[in-house]
Amino acid sequence: MALIVQKYGGTSVGSTERIKSVARRVARHHRDGHQLIVVPSAMSGETNRLLALAKEISPNPNPRELDVVAATGEQVTIGLLSIALHELGLKAKSYTGGQVRVLTDSAFTKARILKIDEERIRKDLAAGMVVIVAGFQGVDAEGNITTLGRGGSDTSGVALAAALSADECQIYTDVDGVYTTDPRIVPEARRLDRITFEEMLEMASLGSKVLQIRSVEFAGKYKVKLRVLSSFEDPESTSTGTLITYEEDDTMEQAIISGIAFNRDEAKISLMGVEDRPGVAYAILGPIAAANIDVDMIVQNIGASGHTDFSFTVNRGEYQNALDVLAKEKGKGFSAREIIGDNKIGKVSLVGIGMRSHVGIAAKMFRTLADEQINIQMISTSEIKTSVVIDEKYLELAVRVLHRAFELERAPQPA
Ligand code: ASP
Ligand code: MG
């Protein structure tokens, strides 16, 4: 018998039919002898609808009240799911975040979980009940309703699993796991049986949006086993999805590269002919940080005759904003011959823990791109990742040829 937390995303509970299907899956696991805590999101589209209602009344709604509104989406699905389980003859009970007491800080619309009271849940589980807890929401020390930020029910699920030392946190969604890359771009993309937290963080932050990043960090920190599965398979399906694990044990797939992440929403800014002296990088990026603009890659040339070129990338949505900031600062903190930009770039990254112990990965990546006449504009590396910036129009081609070159469609042989 295991204690399992199952989190179901919006599409998985998007209609009463889908909710009945979730109930059948929960019933099957219960029948198999497991204890279950189920954490649903709101029905798909519902949180957007609720937030839009508030925006119809005020362009700038009070965050406390916004959370009061947004949290109702999950209150509907926990009740409906409980009713569906009763229909199947199971004992089930639903709780809002406040009722459990998922205690959070008071940062409305982006609260962090501080503590979860578990006694009530444990008692219900011991009585043979399925416990249903609303995702995405909590309550602060004063009793105000809070929400955890968009996609926050992943974090609810993981936090409950951590608090109750669950054997596994299963995240049910509309894909059946984590793939080597987006199958819409590479049809031969393969579902990974396992991936490490570190790799998953790189894949997720680079745009493979299966899980809320914060939930993966949380799971890594508290060593919660996470599994991504599809709720669209038959409720009796025995598919095992993708396990996200902290262990790099012997049975781990021995792939050097686990996947290819990519991101189209990037823009590049270059400052040509800036002075090569201490403090210049700070003079350029300080004001950018002060304007709350995230910088991703940074490249500075070797200086020649007292001058150098300095380039960095930002999210495409921040491109104009960043250019405006620099135009204002130019001539004050730094001087530059010219500031040029390109907002039609994309980033492709190879991700894999095997890079730590294998040489030649970057060289193979560059050769593969060269063979396709794809020009590399910027390069950055970390221990488990190699990223390049290229012209956006070659992004999909790059992902395809790299997927083939590294034979990611083939399952690695166990060691
Ligand atoms: N319903 C919330 C949202 O749409 C939380 C979640 O789905 O994870 O952001
Ligand atoms: Mg979600």
Q: How is this structure best described in words?
A:
The chain has 415 residues and is α/β, with parallel strands linked by helices. Helix content is 33%, strand content 26%. The protein is built from 13 helices and 18 strands. The chain has helices at 16-31, 46-57, 63-70, 72-87, 97-100, 119-126, 153-163, 197-205, 213-221, 280-290, 319-329, 361-371, 395-405, and strands spanning 3-8, 35-40, 92-95, 102-104, 113-116, 130-133, 137-139, 145-147, 168-173, 194-196, 226-230, 242-245, 259-275, 295-300, 307-315, 338-351, 378-382, 385-391. Helix 7 (153-163) runs parallel beside helix 9, helix 8 packs antiparallel against helix 9 and helix 10 (280-290) packs across helix 11 (319-329). The chain is globular, with a radius of gyration of 24 Å. The two termini are 30 Å apart. The mean pLDDT is 93. Aspartic acid (ASP) binds at residues 10, 41-42, 47, 73, 135-136, 150-154.
What's a quick, concise take on this entry?
Helix content is 33%, strand content 26%.
* Helicity range: 25-40%
- Output the radius of gyration: 24 Å
Largest sheet: 8 strands, mixed
> What is the average of the pLDDT values?
93
What percentage of the residues does DSSP assign to strands (E)?
25-35%
Bound ligands, named by name, code or SMILES: aspartic acid, magnesium ion
Number of helices: 13
* Shape label: globular
Question: What are the key terms here?
Answer:
415 residues; alpha/beta; eight-stranded mixed sheet; six-stranded antiparallel sheet; binds aspartic acid; binds magnesium ion
